[in-house]
Amino acid sequence: MKIKLTIAALFATVVASAQISTMKDKVAKENFEFANQQLRHAFVEIDAAHKAKNTTPEKFPTPRNVEPDGSLRMMYPSDWCSGFFAGVLWYMYEETQDNFWKQEAQKYTDYLKSEQYNTNTHDLGFMMYCSFGNGLRLAEIPGYKDILIQSSRSLITRYNPKTGLIRSWDPFNGWKYPVIIDNMMNLEMLFWATKATGDSTFYNIAVSHADKTLANHFRDDYSSYHVVDYDVDGDGQPRMKQTHQGYADDSAWARGQAWGLYGFTMCYRETGDKKYLDLAENIAKFILTNKNLPKDLIPYWDYDAPNIPNEPRDVSAAAVTASALYELSTMSKNKGSYYKKMADKITENISKYYRAPLKGARGFITTCSTGHWPNKSEINTSINYADYYYIEALVRRERLAEHKPVVPPVKF
Ligand code: GLY
Fold this sequence. Notes:
There is one protein chain. The protein is built from 12 helices and 7 strands. The protein has 412 residues and is mainly α. α3 (99-110) runs antiparallel to α4 (124-139), α4 crosses α6 (187-197) and α5 (144-156) packs across α6. It is globular and about 55 Å long. The structure holds glycine.
């Protein structure tokens, strides 16, 4: 009798935890059901955009954002945002295991092959790792590994040992060797490249870049500058600390803070070096305790924007933050459940308040992101990287609910 009761109690616990796990997945599942319909509509919008502008998918494969006139802006393969749409399609394949998504993901990934030789941009990590990286991980497509290795080789041509960093942009705006906080995101592909080739050069460059960024990009309150320019012709040290997409040189551009959080969380995963974890936790503190962070945790485009609360939000910053917090929640000694709770709140609020209407917003999943406020471009609109990191955050949320590693192992 006693044994029966114990078994019954055990069974009840298992059933209860399965129910909790299903409940935890509800937000992710509902959003994937929405994305399943919305992305099919995106294909209709893409075809219509090509017809309207007489362009081809080969030349303009990537839906990037909704323009102020409501039209869909398609971009060419060398655009820094070219890998995000393919990445979303790979996540759809991961979620559904439906070959329809695999075929579409591969199609939109293959359009980007030429970029493996592109040495004009530091954004190859975004472009190639979100597309080919996910493709290799999920479908082991022949050729993708070599494309990623070549992409990593192209990326490190922008490294100069004198500065110890990868140059983000070529000289302009009075800058000689500008490095932006966003560049932390491109290091993930380099960590992968060392695992894939056994050549530690990629790893060492990634670590050097992260160390210099840690030393030079951060202020006492752990907010970061957007741009640090280095004296590459002189002593290799910082010569200017400024902004490009933020409100002011000394302000905290919202997406920049999110790139830093995600980048240093990823660097801790790849190296085990605790200084990266400490920095990530300090950035999380800056973001989550900021007096200008709205209650729904979707930041204004800059934490110091002058007219808060009458400023556009940036859902992309919130999505990147949520995805990073899910990973950080598995690493933090004391604050794991707090980070997870904050990430859950962000994903739930995006779902409730910032999701695109079904068959609206030209097939994008989210709305209300701000791309480049000083340039007056992509303000309060749908942008593909917000969708990518939102979907990634939902995948991570679901993986945690299912007690799987938050970031799946890579393939090489
Ligand atoms: N990497 C450019 C941006 O975040 O807008």
